[in-house]
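Annex B. Sample input.
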Amino acid sequence: MSNTAPTIKVNPKVILTTLLVISAILVGFSIWGEYVKYFGVGDIRGPIHEFLIDLLIHSFYTDAEANVPTYFNTIILFIPSLLFSIIAAWKYSVKDKFKFQWMGLSLIFLYLSLDEASVLHEKLIPPMRALFNYESFGGILYFAWVIPGIAAVLVFILAYLRFFLNLKNKYKFLFFISLAIYVSGVIGGEMVSGHFAGTIGLKNFTYSTYTSLEESLEWIGCSLIIYSLLTYVQEYLPDGFIIKA
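Annex B, continued. Sample output.
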């Protein structure tokens, strides 16, 4: 019997492609469901057909909560948290000076995953609207949680600038592109959504299509973050790691 520890081999490019395909399918289902919702489907051919249409409309819209896209988003945010924690554990074992920054990134993505599942950020909308005259900004602050969101991004940039500058150039590029796409989807996309919501309302196919595409930007960014982290692990921990009791 071999004493060799079992290994799991992961190809970052395959994982990235898989996540992007899943994202495209979910966005397609979201737009399709909203099209059926607003324009109809013609004749309903029995209870199974009716069930499938109802499932399409209510279980795949990316701007709704507690459905398939929400579950996917929660998982796709938890995976970076897990990968960051693995890297942080290794950095701690070798007494790397940025070990706490790596663990901080793990905790940030753990919070983002929990927030996606529980929609904590939307609880900030009423108090932010009370503090700021969001209507005077043309709707971009309609979802007023983006105000503390922008502040959090600025604090993150200041806190992690030194960490970022110490990364290898390859990972500077990967992490910058990944996070830029993700943040532009989360914050920038939400501000544009707010503009649409404030001008044409929430319940129409135009708004639904835009929010579906906006969510895809977040998923692309997060998929690239996962790819970047897997590539990092592949380079610096090519033999994997062993957890000792």
